[in-house]
């Protein structure tokens, strides 16, 4: 915990500094939700195909999902979501003719969550 998953459109593969984003994201999460840096884990999943709106070209998607142990207030989750969106925007280089749609969510892990 936290379990962080980043889905991103293939078109952004060369423009998205994923490692830099993760290395900046982890301390941000630590500061906002009171966890340990060693507990932060981020995985990236490139989506071979994404469709936005009417499927015209020129769109790409980045979605960050952060799953935490329960106990954070809605205000803390909202603050983290906003900070994550600001952070990710700074780690994606502009791509000519491409609009990046960025989104993030913070959710509680289910009671069944275990780690080893």
UniProtKB/TrEMBL annotation:
Signal peptide: none
A Pfam family: CHMI
Domain of life: Bacteria
InterPro entries on file: 5-COMe_2-OHmuconate_Isoase, Tautomerase/MIF_sf
Official protein name in the record: 5-carboxymethyl-2-hydroxymuconate Delta-isomerase
Species this protein is from: Streptomyces flavidovirens
């Amino acid at each position: 915990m936290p379990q962080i998953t980043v889905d991103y459109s293939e078109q952004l593969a060369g423009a998205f500094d994923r490692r830099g984003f993760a290395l900046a994201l982890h301390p941000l999460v630590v500061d906002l939700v009171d966890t340990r840096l060693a507990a932060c884990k981020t995985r990236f999943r490139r989506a071979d195909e994404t469709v936005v709106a009417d499927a015209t070209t020129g769109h790409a998607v980045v979605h960050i999902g952060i799953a935490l142990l329960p106990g954070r207030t809605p205000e803390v989750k909202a603050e983290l979501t906003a900070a994550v969106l600001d952070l990710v925007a700074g780690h994606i280089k502009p791509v000519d003719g491409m609009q990046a749609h960025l989104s993030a969510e913070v959710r509680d892990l289910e009671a069944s969550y275990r780690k080893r």
